[in-house]
């Protein structure tokens, strides 16, 4: 949803035919297949995959087994940026590989989309993804790697829930954070696609207590909520 909103505001995500589809629904998920393929190669060479994140030591992006991927990555970056001032890509795998991309694009701005871990878990289970760890630990691995690799001044955190409360305000916040120039009228046009009826899973923050969600997942989620500016649960909850 966030990727589509930004695309509709002028962020170039690549040629239409290279933006992937959900095989279950046939709906476009706006992931550039070239970035997806390259990210999978990176994870495989480090001994893991998107569903089984590898242990990434400090400086892993400089390891010999990664060096041969630098040239194709640079070509991909050049291809997207050659005719477009504002361009980017969406791929959740980038949460794990972001150190590689930041080494090639030091000025990269990172949009971190956060959603209630219970909703993420429900979505993964419904899709039947073959993950080798629990959905909560997968959630934790992605966000920990991402936050450790990207300093606050290079990132903006946006909460999924905010787009059903004030979509125009949240989209404008993100656009401003990445210096994407967009008119209020175009913001409103883009937000017309936000439909609460398309939400398949709903969970309240309070539901994270007593549901078997690891404490470190709850704590990190609350930190992300705070950084995004989203509403927090009542004070005193832990």
Short overview:
The protein is mainly α. The chain has ten helices and four strands.
Task: Give your account of this protein's structure.
The protein is mainly alpha-helical and 238 residues long. It has a single domain, classed as Rossmann fold, CATH 3.40.50. The protein has helices at 2-8, 33-45, 64-67, 70-81, 94-104, 117-127, 135-149, 167-177, 184-191, 215-228, and strands spanning 19-21, 28-32, 110-114, 155-159. The longest helix has 15 residues, at 135-149.
Key features of this structure:
single chain, 238 residues, mainly alpha, Rossmann fold, two-stranded antiparallel ribbon, two-stranded parallel ribbon, 4 strands, 45% helix, globular
Write the layout of secondary structure elements.
Blueprint: H1 2-8, E1 19-21, E2 28-32, H2 33-45, H3 64-67, H4 70-81, H5 94-104, E3 110-114, H6 117-127, H7 135-149, E4 155-159, H8 167-177, H9 184-191, H10 215-228
Parallel strand pairs: 3-4
Antiparallel strand pairs: 1-2
Helix pairs in contact: 1-9, 5-7, 8-9
